[in-house]
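Reading group handout, session on sequence-to-structure problems. Before we discuss, look at one worked example. The prompt was deliberately terse, the way you'd type it at a terminal:

> structure DUF2780 domain-containing protein

The input record follows.
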Amino acid sequence: MDLIGQLSQQLGVDGTQAQGLAGSLLKMVQGTVQEKVGPDAARQMDQAIPEMQGWQQQAAQQAPAGGDGGGLMGALGGMLGGAGGGGGGGGLMGALGGAAAHAGEIAGVVAILQRFNLDAGKATLVAPLLLNFLKSRLDPGLVGKILAVAPMLAGGSGGGSGPQGGGGLGGMLGGILGK
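And the output record:
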């Protein structure tokens, strides 16, 4: 699968922008894999996607100072995690723990898109492209582990190819953005 070509076509960006975008997105996924699955799985990604290093360098060259959206993800995670303090609402935040993590992933994708001057609504297009690319390159067992720790990737893979094909990702994104 040609991830750069797909990103260019679906998002209306040039090849250089698509490379930077791919590098940023894969860096986010790989960071999650490193943290939650382990360094061996992250190394497997490096080996299976040799061009990822160049794409990440392209992302660093294109990006304004401020990194890959970690600040936004951290702020969102802190906001969602801290909202249940005190008496009421603790049970609600406990119940939403998984949703908060999912929201943090989506916020990371949105922050990356915004860094490349793309509309946040395009996030629903990115997840299925990224998932299909990972499926084309990685062992199915590793893809399963990635989906377990980055469920937002599965949001758009339900077979629906229409403009609303984001499924869970689109719904979550709409909730975050108030659309």
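Points for discussion. First: Residues 3-63+106-152 form one domain. Second: The two ends are 32 Å apart (CA to CA).
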